[in-house]
Amino acid sequence: MPKLMNLQECCAQKLVPAEQAIAEIRQGSRVFIGSGCGEPQHLIRAMVKNRNMQEILIYQMLSFTLADYVDDPDFLERFALKLFFISAPMRKAAFEGKIDYLPVYLSEIPELFDSNQIGLEAALIQVSPPDRFGYCSLGISVDVTKSGARNADLVIAQINPRMPRTWGDSFIHVDEIDWLVHHEEQLVQAVPDIPDEVVARRIGFFVSELIEDGATLQIGFGRLPYVILGCLDCKKDLGIHTQMITDAFIPLFEKGVITNAKKNFLPEKAVATLCMGSDRLYDYLDNNPRFYIRSSDFVNDPSVAAQNDNFISISSALEVDLTGQVCADSVGPLFYSGIGDQANFIRGASMSKGGFSIIALPSTAKNGTVSRIVPNLSEGAGVATLRGDVHYVVTEYGIAQLRGKSIYQRVMELSQIAHPGFRQWLVEEAKKYHYIFLDQIAPPEEDLLFLERYKSWVTLKNGQRISVRPLLPADEFAYRNFFYSLREETIYYRFFRKIRTLPRPMAQKTWASVDYRKNMSLIGMVQKKGHKEIMAIGTYVEVEDNRAEVAFMVQEEYQGMGMGSYLLKELEVIARENGYTGFTAMVMPENKSMIHVFRKRYPDAVIRFQEGDILVIMDFPDNASGASSPEPLPGTESGPSCRVSGEGSSSNASSNRGSAG
């Protein structure tokens, strides 16, 4: 701990009681108050108590203590509140019109002070005791507080020994402070309650699937971000460049998940503007060189955030419409929180090399009676993020990828992750707006979480990693593109006839008919220039009570790499779960590579000639060697799940015929 300055010796003339310092504020003044958990509670109470405080205009970013007074008519007669963000304790007052909300990006607030567009006669801040050189730390509230203090005519600082000293650009010298009030008290505590942890953990599970090791994250404050962070404990070398640090970050530091080692911008440092949490967090931050706390005009600037490669912005939302517009600060016309810097971080993620953004939200509100995925935003709702800026939207039902997608595709992606009870309604509403075709089939009205067990990875003979997952309704365009990428011979082997076109009704029927039990399709996805494309499809469809017919198509450049063998193995796992005891397949005699795949996995397969083709009858062995074990579903196991990559066999793979698409 640094050696501290003796205030009685060095600043005795500035060291006064709160009442004396507050008395220096003139009537009609514009007063800035420090933000969030760093607000000077003792000074606020003294100001409210002073009856000479009349016509005081208060500016604050996050307000907690003043929530105790907003229902008092006397307080409202003497003070007017202008808030840049509506905290949870202030929400009721906002709904009742007792405060004034300033919709401005947090990164722009310092410039409003610096340019005197918002003039300040006084600033009330809270700092740590000064070191022997006279420097106090703004600790957990640098954000807009540093600019507010810099531009105020009168600066009153509450010196609180409990305020941690944070590294970065958090310091203010005692010479810049007019009055010092020494008062020790507990800092404001802010740890969100988690009313529906199962839903939040399911969302966290899907978010974790999108985050690669070594990524740099921005994530907000609240119930959902708190749980999402807890679902990242299987990652490695994550970095942090964010608005706010909370208690949820601490376990990731302690487990070595957050190291900041892979950051190319301000490496080894977790960058933030403020901190909100418990005493455990404040103790962890105190004099900890891992953290670099700076003002919001630096941290939240998209051009600054974008200097982090692989920068991922994770934001919450209240509503997302079917075109991708995001509402985050209001419930209809009622202001609920604030625009913060969601748009800036999302734009920074778009500008970052390898970066992207995630909007995460529960699929419903009001105990499941209202969908948060909506045909259009509620009347009066504000658009916090434009539809062109959204990359991914995540609910407890899955991931919707919007970037580069048409309105038609967005409707299908978003309705697929909506609550099952609202999917049909969303599709019907989309038809009214002519977003989609009138004959469009809605996604299945069931929870498809069980399909997560069927996701895996396979490493091919050439060393390339391929992701494997079930075919989904939103894959219609990808399936179509895959079909047209195939050579005529490959299609002929699959369908036993020449098919040169795949009309939309035929494609829609293919994916819409998948029920994931009596028929199932797995697709292999290859990464190509920032997006994934289908490179293989394996399908089974019931032909008897205990047997299913299996079929495959693999792009020519990946044939012979083991893809067919891997899909066959994974389809067997799923078929066994659904009560099937074996497969059949119709194969053209010249398709010897496919016959080899079947015989390698099922040495006792029965081969019969049938009308010029070959019928292969395969029984599943009693010992299912090589089959994957289903993983626990997110939200049902005891802790956050980390997916384990599977390695495929090295057998040859090709295409064969089957009756399902």
Structure description:
This protein has 661 residues and is of the alpha/beta class. It folds into 3 domains: 7-182, Glutaconate Coenzyme A-transferase; 197-432, Glutaconate Coenzyme A-transferase, CATH 3.40.1080.20; 449-619, Gcn5-related N-acetyltransferase (GNAT) (Aminopeptidase). It has 21 helices and 34 strands. An 8-stranded mixed beta sheet has the order 27-28-29-30-31-32-34-33, sandwiched between helices. α17 (476-485) crosses α19. It is elongated and about 105 Å long. The chain starts with 6 loop residues before the first helix and ends in a 42-residue tail after the last strand. 50% of the residues are buried. The model is unreliable at 638-661 (pLDDT under 50).
Topology:
Layout: H1 7-10, H2 18-22, E1 30-33, H3 41-49, E2 56-60, H4 73-78, E3 79-83, H5 91-95, E4 100-101, H6 109-114, E5 122-127, E6 135-137, H7 145-151, E7 154-159, E8 171-173, E9 179-182, H8 197-210, E10 216-219, H9 223-230, E11 239-240, E12 244-245, H10 250-254, E13 270-272, E14 274-275, H11 279-285, E15 291-293, H12 296-299, H13 302-305, E16 311-316, E17 319-321, E18 326-327, E19 330-331, E20 334-335, H14 342-351, E21 356-360, E22 364-365, E23 370-371, E24 373-374, E25 392-395, E26 398-401, H15 407-417, H16 420-432, E27 456-459, E28 465-470, H17 476-485, H18 488-495, H19 504-512, E29 519-528, E30 531-544, E31 547-554, H20 563-577, E32 582-587, H21 592-601, E33 606-610, E34 613-619
Parallel strand pairs: 1-2, 1-5, 2-3, 3-4, 5-7, 7-9, 10-11, 10-16, 12-14, 13-15, 16-21, 17-24, 21-25, 31-32
Antiparallel strand pairs: 6-8, 17-18, 19-20, 22-23, 25-26, 27-28, 28-29, 29-30, 30-31, 32-34, 33-34
Helix pairs in contact: 8-9, 15-16, 17-19, 20-21
